[in-house]
């Protein structure tokens, strides 16, 4: 399951977005050293799973999920230095920086003025500084250890960390540094914040959603006006605009009303859909499905995953005993209406361990126990 951590300055709308994403008014809390982390689960909307569920009429429909973290530091900034001490944040797959762009004077914004580009840069600087501290402490310890003994492992670690330190000293986030192969693996182990893919969520004024014209264009314009263009040229960084407050109100309506409301605003997708989709794209995630009368289920994996590794998402026994994957694409199955019809047309393939799973594949794994 993907884990996404919300960060940002005080009163930027983190908790509002958290509630929008997880539908949680009451949320589970995981304890950690300094206060609490709110943990909520978001169901990934997927029209394909809806269609498969309609076809199979299973007892259970299980969407893919994304876990969101929020810190209940009401109105305060979640400074990067505090994040270093929070395991859930260190382990997160991606960061979502909620940027205050709504003006509402009744909600004070600690830096005083509204300036999303400044806030984006300020947070970036904080992440870089926090990582630099971690890198320096680790390097110091490594140098001591390397004086006592020779170790290719530790030497590799030192080399990667030295590249990290140099980039950070130049003010470059680690997600903008091109690490490959073993270096990349090693980097992941350090759990640096500036190495995590970053989604900027620009939290706009209601008026920007409710003003006339095509909402998508208005929102795009507002995002550009926020001055984030330079930011977005960086690798593993993306942006999406929402109006968290009004979208939370919409999300609390029943489905039909919510759809009508969104259509009224000229929006094709809800805020939840847009943020989830942007996170998926940023993290290069795709979905495959398992279907049956018992359960229709979506699973998320990173693009390029092999059939055997995908099987391991379901259960390690299935990966271990992997024999073959029976695969059909979503389009042929949705068009023909049944697996049997797909078989008749030769559209169900038998694939081996190394087969690279495609987005929308419906897979039946054959395995030995
Ligand atoms: N006008 C307006 N107010 C918002 C919006 N998003 C959040 N707020 C309000 O801003 C205040 C702070 O929001 P919150 O989500 O708690 O911010 P956090 O400190 O970043 O967690 C709350 O009173 C929210 O209702 C928005 O899009 N527009
Ligand atoms: Mg909050």
Task: Describe this structure as you would to a colleague.
Helix 1 (14-22) packs parallel to helix 11 (244-251) and helix 5 (116-148) packs antiparallel against helix 6. It contains 17 helices and 13 strands. It has helices at 14-22, 47-56, 80-83, 87-90, 116-148, 152-169, 181-190, 206-210, 215-225, 229-232, 244-251, 255-265, 271-282, 307-314, 316-320, 330-336, 339-344; strands spanning 2-7, 28-31, 36-43, 60-62, 65-70, 94-100, 198-203, 237-242, 285-290, 295-302, 322-328, 349-351, 362-367. It has three domains: 2-45 and 62-112 and 196-282, Rossmann fold, CATH 3.40.50; 125-195, Orthogonal Bundle (DNA polymerase, domain 1); 304-367, Beta-grasp domain (Ubiquitin-like (UB roll), Roll). The protein has 369 residues and is of the alpha/beta class. The relative contact order is 0.14. The radius of gyration is 23 Å and the shape is flat. It starts with a strand and ends with a strand. A seven-stranded mixed beta sheet has the order 2-3-5-1-6-7-8, with helices on both faces. Strand 2 and strand 3 form a beta hairpin. Mean pLDDT is 88; it is low at 25-34. The structure holds guanosine-5'-diphosphate (GDP) and magnesium ion. Guanosine-5'-diphosphate binds at residues 8, 10-16, 74-75, 98, 102, 104, 107, 203, 206, 243-245.
């Amino acid at each position: 399951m993907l884990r996404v951590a919300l960060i940002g300055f005080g009163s930027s709308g983190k908790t509002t977005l958290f509630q929008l994403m997880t539908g949680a008014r009451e949320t589970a809390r995981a304890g950690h050293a300094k206060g609490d982390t709110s943990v909520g689960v978001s169901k990934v909307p997927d029209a394909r799973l809806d269609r498969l569920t309609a076809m199979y009429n299973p007892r259970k429909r299980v969407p893919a999920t994304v876990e969101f973290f929020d810190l209940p530091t009401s109105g305060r900034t979640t400074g990067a230095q505090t994040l270093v001490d929070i395991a859930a944040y260190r382990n997160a797959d991606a960061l979502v920086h909620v940027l205050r762009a709504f003006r509402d004077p009744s909600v004070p914004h600690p830096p005083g003025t509204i300036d999303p580009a400044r806030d984006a840069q300020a947070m970036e600087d904080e992440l870089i500084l926090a990582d630099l501290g971690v890198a320096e402490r680790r390097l110091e310890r490594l140098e001591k250890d390397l004086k006592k003994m020779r170790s290719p492992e530790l030497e590799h670690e030192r080399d990667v960390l030295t590249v990290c330190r140099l980039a950070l000293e130049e003010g470059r986030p680690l997600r903008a540094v091109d690490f490959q192969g073993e270096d990349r693996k090693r980097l992941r182990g350090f759990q640096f914040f500036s190495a995590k893919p970053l989604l900027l969520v620009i939290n706009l004024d209601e008026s920007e959603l409710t003003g006339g014209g095509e909402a998508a264009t208005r929102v795009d314009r507002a995002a550009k006006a926020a001055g984030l263009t330079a930011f977005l040229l960086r690798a593993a960084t993306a942006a999406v605009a929402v109006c968290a407050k009004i979208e939370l109100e919409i999300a609390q309506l029943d489905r039909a009303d919510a759809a009508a409301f969104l259509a009224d605003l000229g929006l094709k997708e809800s805020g939840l859909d847009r943020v989830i989709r942007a996170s998926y794209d940023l993290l290069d995630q795709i979905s495959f499905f398992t279907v049956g009368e018992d359960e229709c289920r979506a699973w998320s994996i990173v693009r390029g995953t092999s059939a055997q590794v995908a099987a391991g998402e379901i259960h390690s026994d299935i990966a271990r005993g992997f024999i073959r994957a029976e695969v059909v694409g979503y389009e042929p199955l949705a068009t023909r209406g049944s697996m049997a019809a797909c078989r008749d047309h030769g559209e169900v393939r038998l694939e081996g361990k190394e087969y690279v799973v495609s987005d929308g594949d419906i897979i039946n794994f054959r395995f030995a126990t």
